[in-house]
Amino acid sequence: MSSDRESWRRSDDETGPRGPNPPAPVDDDGANSRGVWRARWAIVRRELRSLRSEKTILLAVAIQLFIAAFSSFLVVGLVSMYDPGVVDGYESDVAVTGSDAIDVAPVVDSQDGLDATIYEDRADAHRAFDNRWDDAVLDANRDDDGRLVVRVTAPDGGLETTLLVVQLREALETVEYVERVENADRLEEPPLAVPSGADASPYAEFTYTVLLPLLLFLPAFISGSIVVDSLIEERQRGTLELLRVAPLSFVDVVDAKLVATALLAPLQAIAWLALLAINGTAIANPAALIALVSALSVLVVGIGGVVALSAPDRRQAQLLYSSAIVAALVVSTLLPEHPANTVAKFAIGSATGTTWLSLALYCLLGALAFAAVRIALVRVDHESL
């Protein structure tokens, strides 16, 4: 090498790189941070892509999609199962007999879905029932104290009997109300006035107290089951350790899998709420509902993560997870406000202070569950997994 070229190289080393666009100095901390986040995001995408091969999960999502997309049609059929009076044209014939049949029959006949017929002879009423001319028999009489006693004869168990019993229960509640009004003058003080009923859809109660909680809670429970299967499968295949080849710690790897699974429930909740709105179901406070689902999802996924790290195999893990969820559902009945009621109140816009405190409690429990998983990850022997 000539002396001129050697002098040129020394000057280049002293002054730094030449050229119009010299590379900027590299920030090792920033590069490592970006690398960690890219690795986490890669694990999240890997986890979400793996769900495409889970036929059971896809079937569950498809069923939820069908329920949410066709909720307006399903509600009519499901409500008619336990409240047949909402379906026009459905009537049951009822034979009314006894000494007070004249007082009871008009009240029963005014009930939607019931057609009352008075029989002077009790035997004729039961003969009509045996021949299936009438669906039930009401035997109304006064006891020695002057109280009205109604004995009901209905068919043996079956779907039709269930529907009929619901109608008769409502009719007898109306009879009881009429009796109380007629005997109000015997009270020492007048009873409180009852507000008149408002015109509302007969399907609103079922939609907000059954259908909506089902669509919001089910994705959270499924997310917990997914994380149990995912972690157990990674442990059994030995791929959980391979994921540490990425610039991530063991805690970061499991965190990424938990986050990916916990995101599924709120994303599904957003889709289901949108479909319900398209079907005409008004949601007063969707943001609170999504926050509630997110908190429950983190809570359930945290429970699933702890179970997956402690159980030896998939069967025992799913058994422990199911038992934990059932225990949580039992404990939820002891709360001042049931989670289903919390969902219904947020949906119809009648949230109380207890409702907001319940939401805060679920968020706190979700944070504690996530912290419990991280503590378990620090204490567990990674080599034994």
Number of domains: 2
Mean pLDDT: 76
Q: Which stretches of 5+ consecutive residues score pLDDT under 50?
A: 11-27
Count every beta strand, where a strand is a DSSP E run of 2 or more residues.
4
Structural class: alpha/beta
What amount of the residues lies in strands?
A: 5-15%
How large is the radius of gyration? 33 Å
- Helical region count? 15
Order of helical and strand elements: HHHHEHEHEEHHHHHHHHH
Task: Measure the end-to-end span.
Answer: 59 Å
Strand order of the largest sheet: 2-1-3-4
Q: What kind of sheet is the major sheet?
A: 4 strands, mixed
Shape: elongated
Helical fraction: 55-70%
Biased composition (Basic and acidic residues): 1-16
Membrane topology: Multi-pass membrane protein
Transmembrane segments: 56-82, 210-232, 253-275, 287-307, 319-336, 356-377
Protein name: ABC transporter permease
